[in-house]
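ingest -> fold -> write
write: protein_1
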Amino acid sequence: MPNKPLPPLYPETKEPIGADALAPLFPMDLNKCKEAGSTKTILFT
């Protein structure tokens, strides 16, 4: 991509949306989710 996309804008103020405004949509704890196991094998039952 030659040019970076523009940041999302808050509709009322036309200012860039900060992380606080996006927190209800993208919770910060989402990155703490881990897979259930540590094995690399997929088991089918």
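write: protein_2
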Amino acid sequence: MKNKYEIIIYWSQEDETFIAEVPELSGCMADGDTYIEALKNVEIIIQEWIEIALTMGRTIPKPKGKLKRNHANTLSDTTIYAT
């Protein structure tokens, strides 16, 4: 694995496939018949996303690692700990 971006993988009942999303790279996602296939596919898409963004002169976001989420499951700058 070359990148350090957070990847979220989940099963899509509607599409009947695993979906891998990269929240830090807008629109960057892939699918696969298995969890591992979705992960492998998104690794390729991440590299392509970066290559295309560079050719367009866009800034590439630095990986932040795990994004923090609040209790409403939305992105947040705070961490909520269960007690």
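write: annotation protein_2
The radius of gyration is 14 Å.
The helical segments are 35-55.
pipeline exit 0
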